[in-house]
Amino acid sequence: MISTHPASVLKGRFKMQDGVHAGGPGRGLRQREAGSNSGLTTRPRKRTRGAATPRDYRDEQNHYQPVDGELIKGQYRVHTLLGKGTFGKVLGCYDTVNDMEVALKII
After folding, report:
1. pLDDT tens track for 3-26
2. Residue 47's CB: how many other CB atoms inside 10 A?
């Protein structure tokens, strides 16, 4: 499981790569503990292709709400909310194409 403590996230473990913050050797989702407190909304999974409609992932203030297991751009599987602020959220994800852990900033 990726630590959500800010100090562990910022210790040089992540580097910039084509607009995506990529981590070191990933452990993958298969080794993540089941039922862990990831800080994400859990919803039943639907088999869908492509982007979700805005009403599926927005709260009352029209802010994006990440969902555990959500696939972003067909490549990044969301599993942890690493942080949030005024201008966006940082998500811990698993890059299914490059087989590694990454952090995505959603603005």
Report:
1. 455 544 444 444 444 444 444 444
2. 4
101 HSE (CA, 13 A, CB side): 21
Q: Between vectors from CA 95 to CA 47 and to CA 36, what angle results, nearest 5°?
A: 75
* Structural domains of the chain ordered from first start: 6-32+52-106 (3.30.200.20)
Sheet containing 15-17: give its strands across.
15-17, 20-22, 100-106, 88-95, 76-85, 71-72
Is the model's pTM score more than 0.90? Answer: no
d(CA 104, CA 85): 14
105 is in an annotated binding site: yes
